[in-house]
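Hey, I'm writing a tutorial for new members on how sequence and structure tokens pair up, and I'd like a real worked example in the thread rather than a made-up one. If someone can provide the structure for the chain below, I'll link this post from the tutorial.
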Amino acid sequence: MRPVILFPLFASLTTLKGVGAKLAPLYMRLFGEKIVDVLWHLPIGVIDRTNLTGVDEIRKQLEPYGYKVYAVKANPDYLHLDMCFNLVAPKLAIAYEAGLPEDFVTLVKEKGIKIISGTQDMIFKHGYNVEALGNNRVMSLKQNTFINEALRSEGMEVIEVDMMELLKAGGGVHCMTFPLERY
């Protein structure tokens, strides 16, 4: 039996704010009819440490469960996908849009996800490497003034952390955290 806490995930997409009669048919064609169907689309960065063979291995193991896996190629200098793209809320992402494949950016936008785009320089300052905490909250570096303000203008609560010393080790907020629960 499904736990009660999961019931909302199996509701119709039309119960989501902003998904009405015009968008519902498109979203249902892209994802499926339930909210949970939207969650089962996984982009995987094909950068320096992941190749297409690895993506195919993951795809073969997850697709029987209903997941769609997308290979996202990017500049090897970016190291990880979360350095240049991050989903911060169900319909909001931050990214260096010009550094991502056009077909991936199109896919994200077709899914109704708004992208806050910044500069390439922000990649190397961990500007996109934030931790989505759920419930329209995100943890971000204090130095990420552009992204932080843009997120606030979209109604996100931004928890700013000042951790310049830890950045010397090479990881950002997303690399160093893992929420045990998301709301």
